[in-house]
């Protein structure tokens, strides 16, 4: 694999060059928080951050998106579909877990023109995690603090420079004419050391082996009641999850004009499965929380042969009542099968 | 083990042993540093899970609603105020709950602490003499607890439970600072500035409803945001939809909100939710002489009508 190096102080000017060709999204500081935003200058970006509270998923799957608008007259209806943004875009400084999450989206939005167009037009330059945090468990769900899966380029911090791992051809094209030097032996050894240290610093995580079978056989286990008793049924864990992608459609009409909008939805909300008859097959947080776990660790494996969680830890950090997905999974995997 | 934790366990054990309650709701150690988490204890064997520290930030009163069991609940000053409101609103009955009141010195704002640490990872936390000692691989940081309290704890007016069945710990002095200073400052701004401030806060909102769900007083069987036919309110995150959500919610808790701050602590993106709620709370206090959750007897302003009400808002629109 080809590798290059870039000095930390040259990142801003590298971004400035990219900005001539791409719309660039990068972590920026806003009101004492780091969020992904479109930047106007390379100097706005910060790579000195742990991870953002909000995942960058909204860049490819906006929380609110108009699908079409219409205007009807007595016998005609004009439908307008928003035009697709031609300018290619790039997400810079995305964490490896979040980069991997888009591989799941690729399955979920297979055939969806809004997503596919944007996705085909987007490059991902990720930055490896030198300091994985307490809630991180990417290594137990197939990723790693320096996983390159899903990325076009991966940056590895080595002292005052980054090693750039070139993952895809599209990634390689980004570096053409950049003049960055090939990485020397020292840089490569140092990078290997950083990767080893980071991986070794990660907590125990979760056990995936046999989990799906356990979940499938524990659907009716009363343990779910106990596990979910403190759950508030809010949308934090799903809205902040980089792999959660459920949505709702709303029609906003005013007289003869209107629009259809796609918005994020959450399996934790009562309305999510409320049927027109008034029946709700998931009437309480128990069924809803169970759905979230089943979807990630059983159904997505069935549908896409992929675990539906990338181990970013956001749902653990931000759950208002500290309902920890790792603990839930652990409890389930230790269950004796219900006979 | 801290004295309060020890006492809580003793009380919980004897209440369960003597079958006075079926369930004790309290806190146990969380899975991350600076976190405690709600805990439901039904058997004596589980009692030793209970803890009390500076991270018991959730308002557990939210778990009392629609419960058939007899419950003992660990409650801080603000939690007790919410319980009082819930009793007055007939959501729980007084004889169904055993209130284990705890005079509270404020809860630690984990996000503020994390901001100070700038990503350094905490491995161990100890509390001693009003100080918090955080240790990580390569650092040790000693923080004064009073400088890192939640905003709601800084403006708290009833740190000591107003009613209780059992009290654990010694009463603490109430704060002497003006609790509504920030509201007064806000009121002094021009209408445009106020709106600009609120809109800036609201546009950060992701409509996750953690604020509503954490709020013990948001117990409506069907919340206006959850209705799809009719859709009372737009579901998008554009400015007007989000603003309407916040304005409506503020009105729905006006004269009821006990300023416990559970909404704001639950918010993942740090929206200033309390500003409006507290503005309304202060208006209610000034105009109707009513402070929510401080007495079981006083009639709630929205549940009464006085023929001699000045009704200024009618004559001076
Ligand atoms: S697990 Fe936590 S974040 Fe998720 S719905 Fe329940 S309370 Fe909200
Ligand atoms: S389930 Fe939690 S840890 Fe897994 S990807 Fe989603 S937010 Fe991250
Ligand atoms: S908790 Fe925060 S983000 Fe969620 S709905 Fe409330 S204000 Fe909005």
Explain what the structure shows.
The complex is a heterodimer of chains A (339) and B (317). Chain A is of the alpha/beta class. Chain A has eleven helices and eleven strands. Chain A has helices spanning 11-21, 96-108, 113-120, 169-175, 185-200, 211-217, 223-227, 236-239, 285-304, 314-318, 325-333, and strands at residues 3-7, 23-30, 33-38, 64-72, 77-80, 89-94, 122-127, 153-158, 161-166, 247-254, 257-264. In chain A, strand 8 and strand 9 (161-166) form a beta hairpin. Chain B folds into two domains: 2-107 and 149-310, no CATH class; 108-148. Helix content of chain B is 32%, strand content 14%. Chain B is built from eleven helices and nine strands. Chain B has helices at residues 3-17, 77-88, 110-117, 151-154, 181-188, 191-202, 210-214, 239-252, 262-266, 274-288, 312-315; strands at residues 23-29, 36-41, 50-51, 71-75, 97-101, 122-128, 131-136, 140-144, 166-167. In chain B, strands 1, 2, 3, 4, 5 and 9 form a six-stranded mixed beta sheet that branches. In chain B, 40% of the residues are buried. The mean pLDDT of chain B is 93. The chains are: A alpha/beta (339), B alpha/beta (317). Chain A binds chain B through residues 31-33, 49-50, 53-54, 63-64, 131, 133-135, 226, 229-230, 232-236, 239-240, 248, 250, 252, 261, 263, 266, 269-271, 274, 316-318, 320-324, 326-327, and chain B through 30-33, 35-40, 58, 62-63, 115, 119, 121-122, 204, 206-210, 212-214, 226, 228, 231, 234-238, 265-266, 268-270. The structure holds iron/sulfur cluster (3 copies). The site of one iron/sulfur cluster has 12 residues of chain B, from helix 7.
What layout of secondary structure does this protein have?
The complex is a heterodimer of chains A (339) and B (317).
Chain A: E1 3-7, H1 11-21, E2 23-30, E3 33-38, E4 64-72, E5 77-80, E6 89-94, H2 96-108, H3 113-120, E7 122-127, E8 153-158, E9 161-166, H4 169-175, H5 185-200, H6 211-217, H7 223-227, H8 236-239, E10 247-254, E11 257-264, H9 285-304, H10 314-318, H11 325-333
Chain B: H1 3-17, E1 23-29, E2 36-41, E3 50-51, E4 71-75, H2 77-88, E5 97-101, H3 110-117, E6 122-128, E7 131-136, E8 140-144, H4 151-154, E9 166-167, H5 181-188, H6 191-202, H7 210-214, H8 239-252, H9 262-266, H10 274-288, H11 312-315
Parallel strand pairs in B: 1-4, 4-5, 5-9
Antiparallel strand pairs in B: 1-2, 1-3, 6-7, 7-8
Helix pairs in contact in B: 5-10
């Amino acid at each position: 694999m080809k590798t290059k190096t870039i000095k930390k102080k040259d990142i801003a000017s590298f971004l400035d060059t990219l900005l001539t060709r791409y719309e660039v999204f990068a972590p920026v500081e806003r009101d004492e928080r780091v969020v992904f935003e479109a930047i106007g200058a390379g100097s706005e970006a910060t790579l000195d951050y742990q991870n953002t509270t909000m995942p960058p998923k909204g860049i490819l799957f906006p929380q609110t998106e108009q699908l079409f608008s219409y205007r009807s007259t007595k016998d005609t209806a004009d439908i307008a579909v928003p035009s697709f943004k031609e300018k290619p875009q790039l997400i810079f400084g995305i964490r490896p877990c979040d980069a991997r999450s888009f591989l799941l989206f690729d399955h979920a939005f297979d055939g969806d023109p809004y997503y596919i167009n944007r996705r085909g037009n987007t490059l991902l330059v990720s930055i490896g995690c030198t300091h994985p945090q307490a809630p991180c468990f990417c290594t137990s769900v197939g990723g790693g603090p320096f996983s390159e899966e899903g990325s076009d380029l991966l940056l590895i911090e080595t002292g005052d420079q980054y090693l750039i791992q070139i993952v895809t051809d599209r990634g390689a094209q980004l570096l053409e004419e950049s003049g960055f030097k090939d990485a020397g032996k020292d840089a490569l050894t140092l990078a290997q050391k950083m990767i080893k240290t980071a991986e070794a610093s990660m907590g125990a995580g979760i056990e995936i082996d046999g989990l799906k079978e356990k979940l499938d056989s524990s659907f009716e286990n009363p343990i779910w009641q106990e596990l979910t008793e403190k759950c508030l049924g809010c949308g934090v864990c799903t809205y902040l999850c980089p792999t959660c992608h459920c949505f709702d459609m709303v029609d906003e009409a005013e007289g003869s004009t209107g629009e259809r909008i796609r918005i994020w939805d959450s399996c934790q909300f009562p309305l999510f499965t409320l049927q027109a008859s008034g029946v709700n097959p998931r009437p309480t947080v128990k069924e809803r929380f169970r759905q979230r776990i089943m979807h990630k660790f059983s159904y997505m494996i069935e549908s896409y042969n992929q675990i539906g969680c990338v181990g970013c830890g956001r749902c653990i950090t931000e759950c208002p009542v500290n309902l920890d997905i790792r603990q839930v999974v652990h409890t389930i995997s230790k269950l004796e099968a219900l006979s | 083990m801290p004295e309060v934790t020890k006492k809580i366990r003793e009380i919980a054990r004897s209440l369960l042993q003597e079958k006075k309650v079926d369930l004790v709701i309290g806190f146990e150690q969380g899975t991350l540093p600076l976190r405690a988490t709600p805990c439901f204890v039904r058997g004596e064997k589980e009692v030793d899970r209970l803890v009390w520290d500076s991270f018991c930030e959730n308002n557990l009163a939210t778990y009392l609603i629609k419960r058939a069991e007899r419950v003992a609940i660990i409650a801080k000053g603000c939690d007790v105020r919410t319980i009082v409101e819930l009793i007055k609103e007939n959501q729980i009955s007084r004889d169904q709950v055993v209130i284990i009141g705890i005079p509270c010195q404020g809860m630690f704002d984990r996000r503020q602490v994390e901001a100070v640490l700038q990503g350094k990872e905490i491995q161990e936390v100890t509390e001693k003499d009003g100080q918090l000692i955080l240790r990580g691989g390569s650092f040790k940081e000693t923080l004064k607890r009073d400088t890192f309290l939640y905003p709601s704890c800084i403006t708290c007016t009833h740190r000591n439970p107003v009613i209780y069945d059992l009290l654990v710990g010694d009463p603490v002095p109430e704060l002497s600072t003006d609790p509504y200073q920030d509201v007064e400052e806000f009121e002094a701004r021009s209408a445009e500035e106020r709106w600009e401030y609120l809109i800036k806060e609201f546009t950060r909102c992701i409509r996750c409803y953690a604020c509503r769900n954490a709020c013990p007083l948001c117990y409506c069987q069907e919340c206006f945001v959850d209705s799809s036919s009719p859709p009372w309110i737009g579901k998008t995150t554009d400015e007007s939809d989000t603003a309407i959500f916040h304005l409506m919610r503020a009105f729905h808790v006006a004269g009821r909100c006990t300023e416990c701050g559970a909404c704001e602590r639950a918010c993942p993106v740090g929206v200033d939710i309390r500003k409006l709620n507290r503005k309304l709370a202060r208006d209610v206090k000034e105009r109707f002489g009513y402070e929510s959750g401080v007495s079981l007897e006083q009639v709630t302003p929205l549940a009464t009508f006085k023929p001699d009400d000045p009704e200024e808002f009618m004559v001076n629109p």
